[in-house]
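Everyone, carefully examine this protein record:
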Amino acid sequence: METVLVVDDEKNYTLILSAVLEEEGFETLTANSGNDALQILGSADVDLVITDMKMPGMDGIELLESIKAKDPDLPIIMMTAYGTVEKAVEAMQKGAYNYILKPFENDKLVIYVNKAIEMFRIVKENRHLRSSIETRYSFGNIIGKSKPMQAMFETIQKIAPATATVLIEGENGTGKELVAKSIHFNSHRRNEPFIPVNCSALSESLLESELFGHEKGAFTGAVALKKGRFELADRGTIFLDEIGELSQSLQVKLLRVLQEKSFERVGGTKPISGDIRIIAATNKTLKNEVAKGNFREDLFYRLNVLHLTLPPLRERTEDIRLLVQHFIDKYTPERNSEIPVKGIDREVERLFYEYQWPGNIRELENVIERAMILCPGDTIRVSDLPKSFQASACSTLKVSDIPFKDNLSDTLADIEKALIIRALNLANNVQSNAAKILGIGKSGLNQKIKKYNLDLGPKK
């Protein structure tokens, strides 16, 4: 039940308005001054404030400014007499939701109240969504409420306190470095360095120097001693990204680090020891690379003490809505427009659920970032998406591929059943998401599931 705070220095007026609103199903609170209203707002959850404009002491404008300073989204309806219409316009400019002239018909006030309450309900839902993203559905900076991601969070919590080496496998763009950081920052090493190295970004000689450092004069251009990433990561964590690209020579040297817990700088002879946790990641399946002879088997087993496989985005479509909202919030400060983007329309959401996302979360972020720049309004539409994405994601139904039945109704029923099954698969059997893909209500989808006797099975 929503709560409305009625503020007026005339006690009879607050009593009458409270009775009208309570009859409409609202809970009401009353105050006879601006100061009393602020005290109530400090201790109660209120969904709407209705305040008189002209009051002794703190007037309606001052009350409006005080409320907006604390909660800019809380809707406020101003009650005003004909002589203070200019003040009401000023209130609208300062953030009031609406104003109503005294005396007014109760039905008109109820209409204004319902609209304001509905608007604030949407605001609260968005607040809840953002809170969910930041708390329940996040682990560090990882976002997900799907079963695969919840299982991933549980695994991270279990392995983070350990010191054993971790191997993370997953397609490009699935968030392997974020997972590595979450492991590090949820371990006892959280206050020590986290040192990332991309093993595919440098040549073999440069990578060796980058990893282990070099002595002065070790090679041409080595004019001073340089500490390597392993040395810098002492007592912390080193993250070796794209470990599958490591050369055979460097694989041997890395194996020695894992076995002996020490290494030497390039051109040096003195062993350097350190307390370093190694987390490695690859977009390849290292076991297959071992079978092909591209990766040392002994090194694979040294790295694969603890193993994580990150699911691609197409296997966790339940998280798409959360991720989209996260990226909209992220790029809102960079948006060169006074119109804030609130979300995506239904057709865009359907495309996002159907698309295979070969670039995974990184690709989704790129699409949202560009759409935020191109979007002229408050909702991202298909026309705002990058042209390359539109070409890949958009497809039309081919009538020639639809098999004929004895009559049209049976043919249409087969099409409807196939689309429902497809939507459920895309939504990982989450019926609310499948209903959105189909553009129907959840109750309507339930009826059709029963009609076609579909066996949903468990959520994926």
In short: The chain has 19 helices and 18 strands. Residues 3-133 form a domain with the Rossmann fold fold (CATH 3.40.50.2300). The chain has four domains: 3-133, 144-311, 315-393, 399-451. Residues 52 and 79 are 5 Å apart (CA to CA).
